[in-house]
Amino acid sequence: MATPTKEKSNRFTDADILSDLQTYKPVTDSHTRNVWAFWDKGLSNSPEWNQRNVMSWVRRLGPTWTVRVLDLVEGSPNHVSQYIPRELLPDVFWNRTMTGPHVGQHSSDLIRLPLLYLYGGVWLDVGMLLFRSLDALCWNALEDPETPYEVAAFRVSMGPELSFLFNGFIAARRGSLCINL
């Protein structure tokens, strides 16, 4: 049996991580290593497997990335209104008058691009498993001012002539023209 290293023994508990994820984290001009996600009813009200995914992101990415899970819970420190100005989203979003079985997913669709444009970073759907560092996956190339890359995403091909961008993972530089509102 392996002896735990100091690094492994100093890991935060699940409760510590979930508690930290429930706090407001302001975005600074110098920091673009943001991971953005959304659960309309708040992370603590999401299925446990989603919470585990997000906790694994925090552990994998470490302190150089700031993980935020936004929501639409009144009074929440992570309410979407803390990060996106009202004029960037339709009234149906703010008034909570969207209807149908997929309101949470449609709300998520509305906020991902404004967040990436305003602040930069990576959008991950809470159901996404992260098996490697975002730095190695795409961020080092996006962050390098010498590269022409502004956006990274997965392309899903449905045949030789049909493909689309998978919107559950989108990485972008702040202010990217490709993401421009």
UniProtKB/TrEMBL annotation:
Transmembrane segments: none annotated. This is Capsule polysaccharide biosynthesis protein. It comes from the Eukaryota. One of its GO terms (molecular function) is glycosyltransferase activity. It holds the Pfam family Caps_synth. It comes from Purpureocillium takamizusanense.
